[in-house]
Design goal:
single chain; 217 residues; mainly alpha; Endonuclease Iii, domain 2; Endonuclease III, domain 1; 12 helices; elongated
Length: 217
């Protein structure tokens, strides 16, 4: 195992232990259609807004067939104030239509098929694979990209590069946990501005904290 892989495994073992001690929420597998739709809604939208928008949408349109026949204007009202709610509403109806017409009402479980759906990129596809189907995948959002670089796990410029590097240095058994752990970690400890380094369980493994101590920042 390489030095990078050793460090990555140490970090994720520490994070797992930390979240267990903090008794923090660990996601379980969700229903694929709901995971997909909620993830599309979540883009550039706060978690609490996504949750409420998804709740209202699924109450009215609980299945792909129901959503496929919905009026996008009604969908837009239900998911407001999610970011770009009008555009997302049209995409959600189209996604449901494609799922009904091309996949017999079932969300596909291959990355290629998922990324053919309107508004579904690599991150969304990987979230569905990991958290709806339990298929090892590495969903990379802003938290995962930022924190992976801050820790010194990777030195990348794009989320796609970060995904590739994390897959290279981490065994598959860690892949599914990467996103939720680093997102939660980024929201609570390793914040974009003024990270709580004095409370961080990864302080001794972090390149950012090391540079901070030596005055390289």
């Amino acid at each position: 195992m390489s030095t990078g892989s050793n460090k990555a495994v140490k970090i994720f073992k520490k994070l797992r232990r930390y979240f267990k001690e903090q008794d923090m929420y660990v996601p379980s597998l969700g229903e694929p259609f709901r995971v997909l739709i909620a993830t599309v809604i979540s883009a550039r939208t706060k978690d609490e807004v996504t949750e409420e928008a998804s709740r209202k949408l699924f109450k009215k349109f609980p299945t792909p067939r129901a959503l496929a026949s919905a009026d996008p204007k009604e969908v837009a009202k239900l998911i407001y104030p999610a970011g770009f709610y009008k555009t997302k509403a049209k995409r959600l109806v189209e996604i449901a239509r494609i799922i009904v017409e091309e996949y017999d009402g079932k969300v596909p479980s291959s990355p290629k098929a998922l990324m053919k759906l309107p508004g579904v990129g690599r991150k969304t596809a990987n979230i569905v694979l990991a958290y709806a189907f339990g298929i090892p995948a590495v969903p990379v959002d802003t938290h995962v990209h930022r924190i992976s670089n801050r820790l010194g796990l990777v030195k990348t410029k794009t989320p796609e590069e970060t995904e590739k590097e994390l897959k290279r240095i981490l065994p598959k058994r860690y892949w599914i946990d990467i996103n939720w752990m680093l997102v939660k970690f980024g929201q609570t400890i390793c914040r974009p501005v003024n990270p709580k380094c004095n409370e961080c369980p990864l302080y001794d493994l972090c390149e950012y904290s090391s540079n901070k101590q030596s005055g390289k920042r």
